[in-house]
Design goal:
The complex is a heterodimer.
Chain A: H1 3-6, H2 8-33, H3 37-46, H4 48-58, H5 63-87, H6 92-118, H7 123-130, H8 138-157, H9 159-167, H10 169-174, H11 179-201, H12 206-217, H13 224-246, H14 254-272, H15 278-295
Helix pairs in contact in A: 2-8, 2-11, 2-12, 2-13, 3-5, 3-6, 3-12, 4-5, 4-6, 5-6, 5-11, 7-11, 8-11, 12-13, 12-14, 13-14
Chain B: H1 3-27, H2 31-52, H3 57-80, H4 85-107, H5 115-120, E1 130-133, E2 137-140, H6 141-159, H7 161-169, H8 171-176, H9 181-220, H10 226-251, H11 255-273, H12 279-291
Helix pairs in contact in B: 1-6, 1-9, 1-10, 2-3, 2-4, 2-9, 3-4, 3-9, 6-9, 9-10, 9-11, 10-11
Classes of the chains: A mainly alpha, B mainly alpha.
């Protein structure tokens, strides 16, 4: 059991999911406040055809190139969602569901063709659906970490700008902050964090890594800064925990375990969160009831004369 | 009926039932709810399998209905706790789906139920699992269940057509008229769940989303009338199901993937060429208006 922790390769993998979770938690926070949580789900599914096409062009697994392919196809997906929403009467949720399922269908079509032709070499491709952190090699880990660190840096450096952009876009515009630039940057970070995550977590569950940590963090604080920090910690923690658990069994997929770890943190937050958690609410309600009882204690009654 | 005939019939049934349900999903702006339910249905099926240890259609149907309703209830509950609607959908379905995948990957081991099958479906196996029906003889189980589900869906929608229409377009008016809006919401979620699980064997969990949303979205571009939209969406569903089957056998690839892709092509055609809300008419109309 312990030698899992000691093997340097496993340590690298653990470290990379930790960083990935941190970056995803931070970007997820931005998309939570942009009210686009499900966009990450659509984009992660839309990345699949790009991964498969990149693989079939090269003929072997090369993570940087596949990340590039995934990013291109996710961007096309995002652009199409935008186009459908803006130039037809179909609403955003339908556009997302549509792009998600059609791109995923195309990805599965291509995947089937590639696996039929590719022989044993495509074994790594299946892991893109559910994620298999153990299948990552050292260079994959480096690529992932480099991208994740850049994303974390962009969020931290531009913290003030992000805050303005999310909460008061008009004021941001007044200050000369280009909303097109910020929108583009946000989308780029969202797509990047998704595509570096699909190797470890898989296209289907990648969205959870972006959605659950911010929601959990929101139960502990009302301040955006603290929420960002907490969300990063929760994301990193669940990445670490999920990967650890998934190494205990043979062939266990990583993604679902990371999601379960994340969901456990969420449950604790819903119950015990200091800001809007259920326990706190119940306590507050009790307190208010008590106060109400104290305040509205009946005034000592005057002896009423019985009129008889 | 021939082997291919059964497959085409099954695909067509999926197309009709998903197409009809999809119309209401689109109009109620609950497209992503369909995505959520199609994922969580997996948990229902796995749990039903773990309890009964058999892969029969009826147990799965019950498991899926429970899972679908649980999803709807959880999403509603989180939303009432102050979580944004789409974030609460995201939290609920990813968690339940992850539990389902873990149960398959760890507990049930290498049984017949594998994730790949549940996600992608395998319509080519449908004709092999037959059952005896009086009068009709040997009928594939999946096809039989699909026709029952389609009948339920059609009866529910036609019987309460007016009520569905009002709750869909103006929930507040419906409530003021005394129509139980919340009850209808959960009945609707149940219908979506049974449609999803019945289509499961044929097209798999994720392609169901394509069959539910895309034909309806395409139909939405052609008409403004609910009744016509329902018919069109069903027709589009059948067209893309059958078209997808032939694309798949042409380039020899995943049938469910091709069906999803075919729905995408149909939508693309509607998106560009629809006379009323299409992309081209947007540019032509101002010109013709200017000429008049």
């Amino acid at each position: 059991m312990l030698d899992i922790f000691l093997s340097p390769n496993a340590q690298w993998v653990l470290f990379s999911t930790l960083i990935l979770g941190t970056a995803a938690g931070m970007v997820g926070c931005l998309s939570y406040w942009k009210r686009q949580s499900l966009m990450s789900d659509a984009l992660s599914h839309a990345a699949l055809p790009g991964v498969v096409i990149a693989f079939s062009i090269l003929g072997y697994k090369n993570l940087p190139f596949m990340i590039f392919g995934a990013a291109v196809s996710a961007f096309i997906g995002a652009w199409l969602i935008q186009l459908i929403r803006s130039s037809s009467r179909v609403k955003e949720d339908a556009a997302m569901g549509l792009i998600l399922s059609v791109f995923f269908g195309l990805g599965i079509m291509l995947l089937t063709v590639v696996s039929r032709k590719g022989g044993g070499n495509q074994a790594g491709l299946d892991s893109f659906i559910f994620g298999q952190a153990a299948s990552m090699v050292r260079t994959d880990v480096y690529t992932m970490m480099a991208v994740a660190i850049v994303i974390i840096a962009v969020v931290i450096i531009g913290f003030k700008e992000w805050k303005l952009f999310l909460f008061d876009p008009d004021f941001a515009k007044g200050l000369g902050l280009s909303s097109r630039l910020m929108d583009g940057l946000y989308l780029a970070m969202l797509v990047l964090v998704i595509v570096i995550g699909i190797q470890a977590v898989g296209v289907i569950l990648m969205a959870a890594l972006l959605i659950i940590p911010p929601v959990s963090a929101h139960y502990w604080t009302m301040s955006f800064k603290r929420m960002l920090v907490l969300s990063a910690i929760f994301g990193g923690g669940s990445g670490l925990l999920g990967t650890l658990i998934s190494t205990m069994g043979k062939g266990w997929p990583t993604g679902p375990f990371i999601v379960i770890a994340s969901a456990s943190i969420f449950l604790v937050s819903v119950l015990a969160g200091t800001q809007r958690g259920l326990l706190v609410r119940a306590l507050q309600l009790q307190l208010q009831r008590k106060q109400h009882r104290l305040e509205s204690r009946p005034i000592p009654r005057q002896p009423v004369k019985e009129g008889k | 009926m021939s082997y291919e005939g059964w497959i085409l019939l099954t695909a067509a049934l999926v197309g009709i039932s998903c197409g009809v349900m999809g119309v209401f999903l689109i109009l109620r702006r609950m497209a992503m709810m369909a995505d959520a339910i199609s994922h969580t249905v997996l948990l229902g099926i796995v749990t039903a399998y773990l309890i009964t240890r058999e892969l029969s259609g009826w147990h799965m149907l019950v498991g899926a209905i429970i899972a679908g309703l649980l999803t709807a209830v959880f999403v509603q509950w989180l939303h009432s706790l102050g979580v944004q609607q789409d974030a609460s959908i995201g939290v609920v379905f990813t968690t339940l789906f992850a539990i389902g995948v873990i149960m398959i990957a760890t507990k049930t081991g290498n049984v017949h139920l594998d994730v790949q099958h549940a996600l992608m479906g395998e319509i080519t196996f449908v004709p092999w699992q037959t059952m005896e029906i009086p009068l009709l003889g040997e009928v594939p189980q999946a096809t039989f269940i699909l026709s029952i589900v389609l009948a339920i869906v059609l009866v529910m929608i036609l019987a309460f057509y007016k009520e569905w229409k009002i709750t869909t377009f103006d929930a507040a008016l419906a409530a003021s008229l005394g129509i139980p809006v919340m009850l209808m919401h959960y009945v609707f979620m149940t219908l979506v769940s049974i449609t999803t699980v019945a289509s499961f064997d044929a097209v798999g969990a994720i392609m169901v989303v394509a069959m539910l949303i895309t034909p309806a979205a395409a139909a939405y571009l052609w008409t403004d009338k609910l009744s016509i939209m329902l018919v069109l969406s069903a027709v589009f569903g059948v067209l893309s199901a059958i078209g997808g089957y032939y694309i798949a056998s042409w380039i020899d690839t995943s049938i469910s993937g091709s069906m999803a892709f075919a729905t995408g092509i149909l939508f693309l055609i509607s998106f560009i060429g629809s006379p009323r809300h299409g992309f081209i008419s947007r540019y032509i109309r101002p010109v013709t208006l200017a000429k008049e």
